[in-house]
Amino acid sequence: MTRFGWLNAVSLTFGFAFLYLPILILVIYSFNASKLVTVWGGFSTKWYVALFQNAQLLAAAKMSLLVAVVTATLATVLGTLAAIALTRARRLPARTLFQGMTYAPLVMPEVITGLSLLLLFVALGIDRGFWTITIAHTTFALCFVAVVVQSRLTAFDMSLEEAARDLGASPVKAFCLVTLPLIAPAVAAGWLLAFTLSLDDLVIASFTSGPGSTTLPMRIFSAVRLGVSPEINAASTILIAAVAIGVMTATLAAKWGARRETRSQ
Q1: Residue 182 confidence (pLDDT)
Q2: Which bin fits 170, alpha (ψ -120 to 50), beta or left (φ > 0)?
Q3: Distance between CA 3 and CA 1 in Å, rounded?
């Protein structure tokens, strides 16, 4: 067994400091009493109070949450269906092409995705707003859900579903009563991952949004261009907390599903 030496400890410390120290500083200065974000004026929560009195930021947060919920739901349904097709339909015509198209948004730059969708909406004459952002977010979140669910379906024991069908259950009923409960942790993890990706997105939303459909990341970015204010630090802290909770919940759901499968075996 390789010993965890001091060099590994130092490297790990510097790595975590590089990644998380800026976030920690942002969180600390969100409780700064001073209006100057670079000067510590004492501990205060007044900027959180001011944040919840800011109508524009609250409207943007409401828009982001609504888009994220709808996006996560649509992406979960479509991503799960895509994962089922890729896992079980081995003789699907043009399966390689379908798989490549499903996973393409994983490696596609967000600028290209946003620009292509913008041109599509303009060509179709669709007014940009809530639904164009939702469609765009669903497009790139779908592939992440498909990856998560497909990894679970690959290890799924098909004999359980076959036994249900031998007992008289239809394919749909066998899937809903046997397969879906067993892959539910992966589906939940995919939903939370899609929700987090949609909530965090800035680039694609900037291309596909319209008047009255500004999301929270867009509002924060436009405010930062004029100078960082303590209210932005407070909003960013809440956003970081929401994303962290979502990621941890998805991780725990996946671990719970693996533990449940181990116990059932």
Answers
A1: 80
A2: beta
A3: 6
Task: Yes or no: say if 138 and 74 are a contact pair by the CB < 8 Å rule.
Answer: yes
User: Residue 162 has which token pair?
Assistant: 């076959």
Q: What is the pTM of this model?
A: 0.79
Write the pLDDT tens digit of every residue in 95-106. 677 777 777 888
> Which residues lie below 8 Å from residue 22, measured CB to CB, with a gap of 6+?
none
Domain 49-264 grouped into CATH 3.20.20.450: no
**What sign for the dihedral angle of Cα 8, 9, 10, 16?**
positive
DSSP state of 128: P
pLDDT per residue as tens digits for the range 88-143? 776 767 767 777 777 788 888 888 888 999 999 999 888 888 999 999 999 889 98
Residues 186 and 254: their CA atoms lie apart, in Å, by 6
Closest CA to 142 of 91, 80, 87, 93: 80
What DSSP element (H or E) covers 68? helix 55-88
Phi, psi of 119 (to 5 degrees): -65, -35
Q: Which amino acid is present at 218?
A: M
Residue 265 has pLDDT above 70, yes or no: no
Which residue's entry shows tokens 């990621």?
247
Query: Which pLDDT does position 72 carry in this prediction?
Result: 94
